[in-house]
Automatic annotation (TrEMBL):
One of its GO terms (molecular function) is hydrolase activity. It comes from Scleropages formosus (Asian bonytongue). Residues 57-247 form the ENPP1-3/EXOG-like endonuclease/phosphodiesterase domain. Residues 293-317 are annotated as: Disordered. Residues 57-251 form the DNA/RNA non-specific endonuclease/pyrophosphatase/phosphodiesterase domain. SUPFAM superfamilies: His-Me finger endonucleases. Residues 1-18 form the signal peptide. The keyword Signal applies. Pfam families: Endonuclease_NS (PF01223). InterPro entries: DNA/RNA_non-sp_Endonuclease_sf, Endo_G_ENPP1-like_dom, ENDOD1, ENPP1-3/EXOG-like_nuc-like, His-Me_finger_sf. This is Endonuclease domain-containing 1 protein-like. Gene3D superfamilies: Extracellular Endonuclease, subunit A.
Amino acid sequence: MFCFLCVALAIVPLGFRAEVVENFKDCNEFFYKKKEPKGIYKVAQNSYKICQTYNDSKCYFSLYFHSKKMTLYSAYTFQRHFEKKLKEKQAINSGYDYTGFDRGHLNPNSFQLGKGRSATYTLTNAVPMDPCFNRIHWKDYEEYTRLILSDCHKADKNKGTAYIVTGAVPGNKNMIKIESNTYMGEGDINIPSYICTAVCYESNDAQNTKSFSFAFIGENKEGGKIEALNILQLNEKLKSYYNINENVKVFDGDCHSSNNGSKELLARLKLLEGNTRKLEIHKMCEERNRDCSNMKRTSDCSDDGSDVLPRKKRKIT
């Protein structure tokens, strides 16, 4: 098993290790109240619990669904940084070359520092994402979340902790055909139908007046709508999308989802709904001399904006 993962992760920086652990307790510092999400594991009994480490430092946790060759979620904490503008760059991996899909990070490198940022460049922290959804719609919410948490850390003298779970709902139809030397053995990578993020900020003040939570979920397609939710609403959505009888609980106790701070943030997030920036989508595609549908048929592009010229096509089934 361990060698199996090493082959797949050979493209990440030296010092990275994906350690398969027996239970969540071996990597529970990335979970709110050190408790893993409930119900999600029922989606995939044949899953690997992975403690992502870099130079022997634990960085985040991923739950990998082997039969679908996809990660169900990554759990991580937000690392404080106060730069005015972070330089964002995400790696292109051969497993996604010319499929027409982005290698979408679940744990974003812009949320991490140092070793933590280096550790995000792994296939077990990525799922295929529609390029227009990833670079326009999802990026808006991801960046807004980063700004909220950065501002919160500055204002909160008690320096609380932001626990985040970003996950993917397995798709029912589309798969990306891959070659045996590109991704954890030969087979198909599942294209998720939905991507979601849940945020739980736990302040260290005695009254928890600065604690809050919020979530958002979006359909992984061109123009896919993203909906802002509280944690209880996300739990219900995921139960429905996973099509399971067991209740889903992303955070133990739902992390202050009913307090005023959570309600205020949710109202702010909802202002982003409907702002799909369609003109920017078309501008982005025109600049590359192709529209979004052509981009899917021919090539994918790096998240840092550089072009990747098409050489061949891969079959989407």
